[in-house]
Write a structure and sequence with these properties.
The complex is a heterotetramer of chains A (about 280), B (about 525), C (about 325) and D (about 550).
Chain A: E1 4-5, H1 20-45, H2 73-108, H3 112-127, H4 130-140, H5 145-172, H6 175-182, H7 187-198, H8 200-224, H9 235-241, H10 251-277
Helix pairs in contact in A: 1-2, 1-10, 2-3, 2-5, 2-8, 2-10, 3-5, 4-5, 5-8, 8-9, 8-10, 9-10
Chain B: H1 32-44, E1 52-57, H2 74-83, E2 85-86, E3 88-90, E4 96-98, E5 101-106, E6 112-117, H3 130-141, E7 162-165, E8 168-172, H4 180-184, E9 190-191, H5 198-203, E10 211-217, E11 221-226, E12 239-244, H6 248-256, E13 262-264, H7 268-274, E14 280-295, H8 305-314, H9 317-324, E15 329-331, H10 354-363, E16 370-376, H11 382-395, E17 399-405, H12 410-416, E18 420-426, H13 430-437, H14 452-462, H15 467-484, E19 487-500, E20 503-504, E21 524-525
Parallel strand pairs in B: 1-12, 1-13, 16-17, 16-18
Antiparallel strand pairs in B: 2-9, 3-4, 5-6, 6-8, 7-8, 10-11, 11-12, 13-19, 14-18, 14-19, 15-19, 20-21
Helix pairs in contact in B: 8-10, 9-11, 14-15
Chain C: H1 2-32, H2 37-42, H3 48-57, H4 64-76, H5 90-125, H6 130-144, H7 147-161, H8 181-210, H9 213-220, H10 225-253, H11 257-263, H12 268-277, H13 281-309
Helix pairs in contact in C: 1-13, 5-6, 5-8, 5-10, 5-12, 5-13, 6-8, 7-8, 8-10, 8-11, 9-10, 10-13, 12-13
Classes of the chains: A mainly alpha (about 280), B alpha+beta (about 525), C mainly alpha (about 325), D alpha/beta (about 550).
């Protein structure tokens, strides 16, 4: 009787999924490209506005039917991507533009008062429900498209800043940052060149999700009469305003909604793929 | 991240109040309720007694009250109408129909009116008396409170008015008012028992209406039971429940799902989706809401009547109806009150004429005109109409800049500022429209229409006892407005109601705000 | 642990300051809104004389700071004041609407946690395989669908076509518990997006945890797979998820306008919308206090959870 | 070990071990070859683990000893191709990692895993008896590793335990498991002499229970003190094996000889009399950590020009805090750090270019101190650019020269840190600091994570620097007496206090303070002979 036995079969370790990220990347790229191309090239393709037809009808040369004020849906789809993409992307970018320095400064400083001065007001903003915030600010200052981007960015800043700070604080506590200080590197080079670069991955993940939120916040704001006209050619506005006709003329809702879904899903997939590529820390 | 459909809920406030009167119309004992109820009931078969009807309205949330004098929204009015009665109410053509008043008689000078009450009881068994009427009117006119109907009662000198006997009131007026019955039918002029207070209405309101109070939760539901002793005959229904659903799709879904039997204020698109499908009934109340653009006639560029006429000619009214109202309405002819008593329907229908519009603008030296059009999400179709009109104006070389305003303060904002705005009005007598909006001292003169001769015409009409003569004066006033007024009335929207298949006796002609609209005592469940 | 105690006390103190700041901000913004309660009440009858009369009746002719001071003094005595629009106490507004909101929120959270965590763990367990890809794709897709669209879809299919569930909760008022069927669809809609974000967070945390040396160690020592996943790996994925959960609960409690409107549930969101539309400052203020306190308490809770599940290593000498 | 093959203690399933022959292996590896990406990390290794015996795998980092040890656990690198056979006695294989904290779940109390393990062993018992039975097994296992007060301990989180407790806890897990084989991966690396001694004792106690211990280590002292059998590995192959004494006394393979030669004496630094004035002087330093806990008190410490001062102490003694105070990385202290008699700002952020350059610091974890995205050469060169204002191309050239002189080729330096070994990175880190032309170089445990050969290389480097650069003073922070021998003066820290200070020879040969005495003794313990030989050759 041998007390020895093979307890574990020998095998080639864990399977290795090397082929997947490119597939995810490709899918994400396709999903992003369709709405993006439509958004950027659409305005170049449309002709003049045709005569209005009755609202929510199909046929009569309108192959996607008409919308809630009798305009051609396809024309609106072509025109409506640019503001969505521009405003939403601008707002997301703006939010990070403010959140990044705030988060980086407070993560890198050793002065508690500075960190508190920067972050505590944001905590106050965070405690105001964004619903109330948008509702009130929007009514007080009736902003235009730029104002809208600013407002949506503003609502997103506290949260984004917290995320940046958390990620940056993690990096900032590593010896690498102390080593850079030891070398007399400038604050900029440490903050941007090293810490900023190291937190790109968590930020990319956050940005993908944030963009989705921003898109619908823009649509909501448009509905409230901020920034974009309530009948503007804008996918998000179209989804919202045409919903009354969902059962009569679904295309006016479905097509822009699908484009938005494709855009946000694609962005998220791309972020995921980007995340995977980097080395695991 | 969220979305705010609730914001759409505030349909326009039902509006009607009048100053002055001329003669009595439809005076007599035959209540219009019986008349219209009978007429509609005919098509629906024999009324069946019993059952509970649930009606969904857009409401006012937790601030709602059952105080009938505070009624502001459609839901408030529908509830008030079930619990209370007015002395008179509007018929389908917006003429005053007697209700608690069995009749009225003016003196020769038209400034002293004797109103006789019919025999009716409040829910607590006490009779409705002249003192109750005077109490109710004095409560409304209380300067401490700012009840909506106060302005409508302005012609009455309440100090001098008195109860002649138990069931006769003598109203002393400040000036001749031929259309005085309109005052009695004014929006919110409900009769409540002498001594009622706000607290009573919150706890257990007592009225003389066709239904008695059972329960009420602000912003949610109100349940009322049949008043078997109602003077106009007991309702067919055992109970009616008013539920609040601010989102239109929720009202439709509740109706489709059998959770309510009556849904008030539906979208034209919804109506199109379900009309004739057999699942639910769609009722379109025609001529319910005037749709207009209001031009301020006292300032450039609209102080030039050629510019105003050019704007009349720019509008493609059918396109506005199709686009902004989804086809649920009829074109307007720049006059208020299509289908109402005294409406000047002999005038030719105005059509789009861009060439002539351009020519007029050129004459006025207003080529390449730029104007700002104020609009807001305050009422359905406003923003849509604004953008459609912007496109139409562009064809005549006019640049319209659409400006979105706050929906909560829109009406106050547009009263004095701006030059051009979207405007809309619920049903009211033409006389009331004139007196509230088009006289020099009108409180809500959004077109800044200040003309002494026009004011004089109005005074003349109110002092004219003869119906025909008075109609002729109103006709003259309307022709003037048609030619050079400040209201570009492009259409009249339908008011759309959905009912379950079994609901019968719903009036199909009464515009919103009139007696037979949202009236449940003549409705039954088949 | 006195350290934790004093930390929590400091946090609560700051929370109080935060709430005061929120209230001041909200007051300032509400005051700055175009129009006031009088204008809102006058509606399409903006007769200036009447508006002035209403303003006087509502005490709106007094300076803003005086009204704020009065309100603050009242609040110190636990008096939230009375509504401008109806004259009823603000507490009746809040208490009336809090029930449905709380019910919806607790039901949603009760389902959200197991479903979100379960999906996240499932995806992490099969990382890179089809289950993972399916879960990831579906959560990503649903996350991108607006709430109202999802709500309309559910109502159409399950209430109107199949007739399984009531389409709205109209007329049920606060007695929602008596009509559980009416809650199914609203809770599903409320769940849709939080489940997606939560499961994605849990998945990410679980993938890291499952690849960690301590999980390898537990596996090495023969702990069953399910036990490793839920008892050993999951606690490490909880900290980031707790923050997200706190924000979700915050959102659920501070007004879910779309769902409330779509399904006719009279919760705090509806009260807030109405109060802002009516410029009913005391009600808006009262809600701001409630929301502020909820946010502060939730964030504190989330931080406590994070503290518990992600204890920092002591600083090395 | 022939008769009873039962493992001692209450735990451990009694395997059906018949009366076995003298050398019945509890684990056996035959012809193991592991290939990753076409590279053979382990090449034809065979190994027998006998009960109650300690088998050591020695070799430099990357020699394949860890992969071999892991194979006993049934674990292989991802994507590895494996040939050969691994046989292990039934029951699980225990594992003691280098950092016990890594295998302790930070989010669970320490009892969680122990209870889960015990619960699996008491499944046959009636339901009501399972809980107490499992608990008594857990407590017995804790007892066996001298963790008393087990009940309270189980309620703690891993971060609330000391390093020693963590290590014993991991051993307790292996005992509870009933392991017949325990793989210990570098259990003493980076530990001070007293701790090392404790670990050695614990592992010896484990072996005494009849458990086969596989020791993976480059710590020769520990191997010598513990191992019965040694396998010397290099580049995946076993180059020499045999009983420990035999391999030590008569090594046959040249690599083994080289490995053992590291034990040879260090070069004695040219003793220079301390310069006239202290470059760096610490006065009345009292350092705190955040909650106001004082962790370090240094009334007086001077570093003279050209001198090497070692700060010796166990982990937790406050020596790293002292180093960080000097470097400006730790700000919360009272008292002063004077450079040339002028107080240095507490934070390095407030130190100007010159002062920053004057005091440089080399981190313990070289890998963590580099930016993972940029090539090492670029990072090193920045010091010259920022602190000495050298133009970028010149700085790069200078950095390349310095790196080369420290033994890092240009090819390696052009890579990102992930592709460099620990030793290479430590050289690069030294180069980075040296490029500032510092007057004082503070080296914080810079050799503790390195294998013997590499460590030797680094220490030689430091000795060379001291020789070549007159104006350079070194402050060596270390737990290791060997490293401290490099110094001219030694300060001994214990519990945040300087317990002894003086010339290196005095401290090492005639320690005055009891703590220093125990430190020196325990160091002499496991490798007494080598210490003696070092003394006779180098210090006499």
């Amino acid at each position: 009787m041998r007390p020895l036995q093979d307890v574990k079969p020998l095998q080639g370790g864990r399977p290795f999924w090397r082929g997947l990220p490119p597939a995810r990347f490709a899918l994400g790229a396709v999903l992003v490209c369709v709405p993006l191309v439509l958004a950027l090239c659409g305005p170049l393709l449309v002709g003049g506005p045709g005569p209005r037809a009755a609202s929510f009808t199909l046929g009569d040369g309108h192959w996607l039917g008409t919308d809630f004020v009798g305009r051609d849906v396809w024309r609106q789809v072509l025109l409506g991507g640019r503001p969505v993409v521009v405003v939403a992307l601008t707002a997301t970018a703006l939010a990070y533009l403010v959140a990044l320095p705030l988060g980086l400064i407070s993560a890198l400083t050793h002065r508690t008062w500075l960190e508190e001065t920067l972050m505590r007001p944001l905590d106050v903003l965070l405690a105001v429900p964004s619903l109330l915030m948008i509702l009130l600010v929007a009514s007080v200052f009736s902003p235009g498209a730029t104002g809208l981007a600013l407002l949506v960015a503003l609502v997103n800043i506290p949260d984004a800043a917290r995320i940046v700070r958390a990620a940056a604080a993690d990096v900032a506590s590593r010896p690498a940052v102390e080593a850079l200080r030891m070398q007399g590197e400038s604050w900029w080079r440490i903050a941007v060149g090293h810490v900023g670069r190291s937190i790109l991955r968590p930020l990319a993940a956050d940005a993908g999700v944030r963009l989705t939120g921003v898109l619908y916040l823009v649509a909501t704001a448009a509905f409230l009469g901020i920034g974009v006209a309530p009948d503007a050619a804008d996918w998000a506005v179209m989804v919202d305003r045409n919903r009354t006709g969902l059962f009569v003329q679904p295309w006016a809702v479905v097509v822009p909604a699908l484009l938005i879904v494709a855009l946000t899903m694609g962005c998220n997939l791309l972020c995921d793929a980007a995340l995977r590529k980097g080395p695991r820390s | 991240m969220q979305d705010y459909p609730g914001l759409r809920r505030r349909g326009f406030l039902a509006a009607a109040s009048g100053i002055g009167a001329l003669t009595l119309v439809g005076c007599g004992d035959s209540g219009s309720g019986n008349k219209s109820g009978g007429a509609d009931g005919g098509g629906d078969g024999k009324p069946r007694r019993g059952g509970r009807l649930r009606a969904a309205f857009a409401g006012g949330g937790a601030s709602e009250t059952l105080d009938p004098h505070l009624a502001n929204l459609f839901a408030d009015v529908a509830r008030a109408k079930a619990l209370f009665d007015k002395l008179a109410d509007y018929g389908d053509d917006l003429s005053a129909q007697p209700r608690l008043a069995s009749g009225w008689e003016p003196n020769a000078g038209l400034d002293r009116w004797k109103v006789t009450l019919r025999k009716a009881d409040f829910h607590d068994g006490k009779p409705v008396t002249a003192e109750d009427v005077l109490f109710s009117f004095r409560r409304i006119a209380d300067p401490e409170k700012a009840f909506r109907a106060k302005a409508s009662l302005e012609p009455i000198d309440l100090k001098a008015s008195r109860a002649v006997d138990e069931r006769t009131v003598e109203f002393v007026l400040k000036r001749p008012t031929a259309e005085f019955p309109n005052v009695l039918a004014a929006f919110g002029a409900y009769i409540v028992p002498d001594g009622s207070s706000a607290a009573d209405f919150d706890k257990k309101p007592v009225g003389s209406g066709p239904f008695r109070f059972v329960s009420f939760t602000p912003g949610r539901s109100a349940v009322f039971r049949r008043n078997d002793d109602h003077w106009d005959g007991a309702p067919h229904l055992d109970e009616v429940e008013f539920v609040v659903a601010n989102e239109e799709s929720a009202r439709v879904n509740a109706l489709l799902g059998g959770q309510v039997e009556y849904a008030h204020e539906l979208n034209p698109t919804t109506a199109r989706a379900h009309e004739g499908k057999g699942q639910i009934e769609i009722v379109r109340l025609r001529n319910s809401a005037m749709q207009a653009f209001a031009m301020k006639t006292d300032r450039a560029p609209f102080d030039d009547k050629r510019v105003r006429e050019a704007f009349f000619l720019i509008a493609d009214r059918q396109e506005l109806i199709d686009g902004a109202l989804s086809g649920a309405g009829v074109v307007g002819n720049d006059l208020f009150g299509k289908g109402y008593e005294y409406y000047a329907d002999g005038l030719p229908q105005r059509e789009q004429d861009l060439d002539r519009a351009r020519a007029l603008l050129k004459q006025a030296g207003a080529e390449k005109l730029k104007v700002t059009l104020d609009t807001s999400a305050v009422a359905a179709g406003f923003t849509e109409a604004a953008s459609i009109f912007r496109d139409q104006a562009a064809k005549a070389g006019v640049t319209v800049d659409v400006k979105m305003g706050s929906k909560d303060s829109y009406w106050a904002d547009i009263l004095d500022s701006g030059t051009l705005c979207c405007y809309r009005s619920g049903a009211m007598p033409i006389e009331a429209h004139l007196s509230q909006r088009l006289l020099t001292d009108s409180t809500t003169n959004a077109t800044k229409w200040h003309h002494k001769d026009f004011d004089a015409l109005y005074q003349q009409a109110q002092a004219t006892k003869d119906d025909k003569e008075r109609a002729a004066v109103f006709g003259r006033m309307q022709r003037r407005l048609y030619a050079e007024g400040g209201f570009l009335v492009w259409g009249f929207a339908d008011w759309i109601i959905g009912t379950a298949k079994g609901v019968k006796g719903v009036d199909r002609k009464a515009p919103a705000n009139t007696l037979d609209w949202a009236r449940f005592d003549k409705v039954w469940l088949a | 642990m006195s350290g934790l105690g004093s930390w929590a006390a400091r946090r609560l103190l700051f929370g109080g300051v935060q709430t005061v700041a929120v209230v001041l901000l909200v007051f300032a913004l509400t005051e700055a809104l175009p129009g006031d309660a009088a204008v809102a009440l006058a509606g399409d009858q903006p007769d200036p004389v009447r508006i002035a009369a209403i303003r006087e009746a509502m005490d709106l002719d007094r300076p803003a700071y005086e009204r704020l001071a009065d309100w603050a003094v009242g609040l110190a005595h636990a008096d939230f004041g009375t509504s401008l629009a109806s004259g009823r106490p603000v507490t009746s507004y809040i208490s009336g609407a809090f029930g449905p909101t709380l019910l919806l929120a607790s039901l949603t959270v009760a389902l959200l946690v197991p479903v979100g965590v379960g999906l996240g763990v499932l995806a992490a367990r099969f990382e890179g395989r089809w289950v993972d890809r399916l879960v990831s794709a579906v959560t990503l897709g649903v996350y991108a669908v607006p709430e109202f669209a999802f709500g309309v879809l559910l109502v159409t299919v399950f209430a109107l076509r199949l007739d399984w569930l009531p389409p709205t909760a109209v007329g049920y008022g606060t007695d929602l518990l008596g009509h559980p069927a009416a809650l199914v669809l609203p809770v599903l809609v409320l769940l849709s997006r939080p489940v997606c974000s939560l499961s994605r967070l849990v998945r990410a945390g679980m993938i890291d945890a499952l690849a960690s040396p301590y999980v390898a160690h537990a596996r090495r020592y023969g702990i069953p797979g399910a036990r490793i996943r839920y008892a050993h790996a999951l606690p490490n994925a909880v900290a980031p998820a707790a923050q997200q959960l706190a924000r979700t609960v915050d959102w659920l409690l501070c007004g879910v306008i779309v769902v409330e409107a779509l399904f006719v549930i009279p919760g705090l969101g509806t009260v807030l919308m109405n109060a802002v539309a009516e410029r009913d400052v005391p009600v808006v203020q009262g809600l701001a206090v409630v929301f502020g306190v909820i946010t502060v308490v939730l964030n504190l809770g989330a931080d406590l959870v994070a503290h518990r599940f992600a204890p920092r290593a002591e600083v090395a000498a | 070990m022939s008769g009873s093959s039962r493992s001692g203690g209450a735990s451990g399933p009694s395997g059906p071990n018949g009366p076995a022959a003298v050398a019945v292996a509890v684990a056996e590896i035959e012809g193991l070859t592991v290939e990753v990406d076409g590279r053979r990390i382990v090449d034809g290794v065979s190994l027998r683990v006998l009960p109650g015996k300690v088998t050591a795998l020695v070799g430099a980092s990357g020699s394949g000893k860890t992969t071999t040890g892991r194979a006993l656990l049934g674990e292989f690198p991802p994507g590895a191709r494996v040939e050969g056979s691994v046989r292990v006695a039934e029951a699980w294989v225990g594992y003691v990692p280098q950092h016990p904290a890594a295998v302790l779940n930070p989010a669970r109390r320490v009892g969680a895993l122990l209870h889960d393990m015990a619960r699996g062993q008491v499944r046959e018992l009636p339901r009501s008896e399972r809980r107490p039975a499992a608990r008594s097994r857990v407590l017995a296992a804790l007892e066996a590793v001298q963790l008393t007060d087990g009940g309270a301990l189980l309620q703690r989180f891993p971060h609330q335990l000391s390093g020693g407790q963590q290590q014993r806890l991991v051993l307790a897990q292996a005992l509870l498991l009933g392991a017949r084989v325990v793989v210990a991966d570098e259990p003493t690396t980076g530990q001070d002499a007293l701790t090392k001694r404790r670990v050695v004792d614990e592992l010896a106690a484990v072996a005494a229970r009849g458990i086969g211990v596989v020791l993976l280590s480059h710590d020769l002292e520990t191997v010598r003190a513990l191992a019965d059998e040694v396998l010397v590995m290099r580049e995946g192959r076993v180059v020499e094996s045999g009983p420990t004494e035999r391999v030590w006394l008569t090594p046959t393979h040249p690599w083994t000889r080289q490995l053992l030669a590291v034990r040879a004496p260090l070069t004695e630094p040219v003793p220079r009399g301390p310069g006239p004035a202290a470059v760096l002087r610490v006065q009345g330093l009292r350092a705190r950590h955040r909650p106001g806990v004082e962790v370090l008190r240094v009334p007086e410490l001077a570093v003279h020009s050209g001198e090497c001062v070692a700060v010796l102490g166990r982990s937790g003694s406050g020596k790293t805090t002292l180093a960080r105070c000097l470097a400006g990385l730790h700000r919360t202290y009272e008292g002063e750090v004077l450079l040339d008699g002028v107080a240095l700002p507490r934070s390095l952020r407030d130190r100007g270019r010159d002062r920053l350059a004057a005091v440089q610091y080399v981190f313990q974890d070289a890998r963590a101190s580099f930016d993972e995205h940029r090539p090492v050469l670029d990072q090193v060169a920045r010091t010259a650019v920022r602190l000495r204002g050298v133009a970028a191309p010149d700085a790069r050239a200078e950095a390349a020269r310095t790196l080369d002189s420290l033994g890092l080729s240009g090819e390696s330096a052009a890579r990102v840190p992930a592709r460099l070994s620990g030793g290479e990175l430590q050289r690069a880190a030294l180069a980075r600091a040296l490029l500032a032309r510092p007057r004082v170089l503070v080296c914080d445990e810079i050799t503790s994570g390195l294998d013997t050969v590499t460590r030797r290389g680094i220490l030689d480097l430091l000795a060379g620097l001291l020789r070549d650069r007159d104006d350079l003073s070194l402050v060596l922070i270390t737990h290791d007496l060997d490293t401290a021998r490099l110094a001219t003066r030694i300060a001994v820290l214990d519990g945040g206090e300087v317990v002894e200070q003086g010339p290196a020879r005095d401290v090492l040969t005639a320690p005055a303070h009891p703590f220093t005495v125990s430190l020196v003794e325990s160091s002499a313990g496991p490798a007494a002979e080598s210490a003696k030989s070092a003394e006779s050759a180098g210090w006499a």
